[in-house]
Write a structure and sequence with these properties.
Elements: H1 2-15, H2 20-35, H3 40-46, H4 51-62, H5 68-74, H6 77-96, H7 102-112, H8 122-149, E1 154-164, E2 168-174, E3 179-186, H9 191-202, E4 207-214, H10 218-228, E5 231-234, H11 236-281, H12 294-332, H13 346-367, H14 371-381, H15 384-404, H16 410-421, H17 433-445, H18 455-466
Parallel strand pairs: 1-4, 4-5
Antiparallel strand pairs: 1-2, 2-3
Helix pairs in contact: 1-2, 6-7, 7-8, 9-10, 11-12, 11-14, 12-13, 13-14, 13-15
Length: 467
């Protein structure tokens, strides 16, 4: 085994491409040979390995850092096999399994072989998870005050929502940094409770909430209006969800019926074909009387199957129309044209939104939507004035920020704001043609002023540079 590995190392020497498994085994053998009194020159000559290469491997190992026993283990053939198993288990669990959380951790411990040394049951890992969560909370309490004192004052947007598991949990996140300001269980979700929890989350932080994005819950609206005194921005997700609640239930029911009819038509067609084959190959099974007209029956079954297929494709096409309509709402509600990058006025966005809702009305009529379904669309339509108010708020905020640093000229302000208002696909998600196209457009119109921070931070940085 050793001689074969070293021979392979000599073959790799010719193309200067050493595999990790070979290098660790060569180093292990070289260290044993050196301990036995054999020189590096003689060892390298015997196994056709350049001495400079071997010296580089040994020097790299010596400078890895960490405890020598740990380094020696992972730089050995046995340690490399363990490391490979751990890495493969991590890749498989993190990247390819839908399961996350404690059960994903248990799966990782099992696949990596660490379960021989670490308790991998759900209960054991649940205890570790609870302890870690408590430690993270205590760490936040210790460092938040110190870090807050180093922050520059800033104005922020707060995204707020309630979750239920099953207790009411109030959540508030600053979207640029993804910093969780509020994550508390509460008995109520009224305005007073929201005010108290947000005030607690903002305590000691030099920030001012100028905008809140949430659904249209009465408690949240009163909290933003009276407690924060900030602008409220409707949540586009809940608007699209309201439209989907009106259109999708009927379409989903029709899709189930169409699929069932198509599957039954396929079964009937296959049954007639099988019956014709049995009739032809087994004469003893034939009964008295005139033989069945199999070609006619098979043709009728094939025609019914094709009609069921067309009906199924029609329902799928209608579902795609709904998806495009929902996406059209998101594209219409944007201060810049997502294809050309041109700035759009509030009136132009209003026309685009109304056009999208007109298409939704046509789609509802085509589907024969009842009054209950249309009511969901009308409920979403009533948010158009709030969407336009939010758009005007954003444009005025950009204008004020540009004026604060003396950034004159609409083209300059347009280029700067475009670079940060452009929607990019979420990292780590599979990107379809629409997402890839949007990302491509964003690269074309992105300003060199910066692509990571939000508009306010980039304008501040540009102002400092100009000063």
């Amino acid at each position: 085994m050793w001689r074969a590995s070293v021979t392979e190392a000599g073959q790799q020497h010719a193309r200067r491409n050493w595999e990790r498994q070979v290098t660790v085994e060569v180093m292990a053998r070289a260290e044993k040979a050196q301990a036995a009194g054999q020189s590096q020159v003689r060892f390298c000559k015997a196994f056709d390995i350049p001495r400079n290469t071997l010296r580089y491997w040994l020097e790299r190992k010596a400078h890895l850092g960490g405890h020598p026993k740990v380094v020696n283990f992972f730089e050995s053939p046995e340690g490399l096999a363990v490391l490979h198993q751990i890495c493969m288990a991590a890749h498989f669990v993190i990247e390819f399994l839908p399961r996350t959380g404690i059960r994903g951790m248990c799966e990782f411990l099992e696949l990596s072989g660490l379960s021989k040394f670490v308790a991998s049951s759900y209960g054991a890992q649940q205890q570790v998870s609870a302890q870690m969560e408590a430690e993270i909370a205590r760490y936040e309490e210790r460092v938040q005050g110190r870090l807050a004192a180093q922050m520059a004052p800033r104005k922020i947007t707060l995204c707020e929502d309630e979750t239920f598991h099953p207790q009411i949990c109030l959540v508030g996140i600053e979207p640029v940094s993804d910093f969780i300001l509020v994550e508390r269980y509460a008995e109520k979700r009224d305005a007073k409770t929201w005010d108290a929890q947000v005030s607690r989350g903002l305590g000691g932080l030099p920030v001012e909430v100028v905008q809140s994005t949430s659904d249209e819950g009465k408690g949240l609206l009163a909290h933003v209006r009276e407690g924060l005194g900030a602008h409220h921005s409707p949540d586009l997700f809940h608007l699209q969800r309201e439209i989907a609640k009106g259109l999708c239930p009927r379409l989903n029911a029709e899709l189930r019926r169409a699929r069932r009819a198509h599957e039954e038509a396929i079964e009937v067609s296959a049954a007639w074909k099988q019956a014709a084959e049995l009739y032809a190959h087994y004469p003893e099974l034939r009964g008295p009387g005139r033989p069945p007209n199999f070609p006619k029956r098979i043709g009728q079954a094939a025609q019914a199957q094709e009609q069921a297929h067309q009906a199924l494709e029609q329902v799928k096409a209608e579902q795609q129309q709904v998806r495009e309509a929902l996406r059209g709402i998101a594209e219409a509600y944007h201060p810049f044209d997502l294809k050309t990058g041109q700035r759009r006025s509030v009136s132009r966005v209003e026309r685009a939104l109304k056009q999208q809702f007109a298409q939704l009305d046509q789609l509802a009529e085509m589907l024969g939507l009842d009054e209950r379904g249309k009511a969901h669309i009308d409920k979403a339509r009533r948010l158009i004035p709030k969407l336009l108010t939010t758009l005007a708020f954003v444009l005025s905020a950009i204008k004020a920020l540009c004026g604060r640093i003396g950034l004159a000229g609409p083209r300059r302000a347009h280029a700067l704001s475009t670079s940060h208002s452009w929607p990019l696909p979420a990292p780590g998600r599979r990107q379809g043609p629409h997402r890839r196209g949007t990302k491509s457009h964003s690269r074309c119109f992105t300003s060199p002023a910066g692509t990571v921070a939000g508009p306010e931070q980039s304008i501040d940085r540009l102002g400092a540079h100009r000063a």
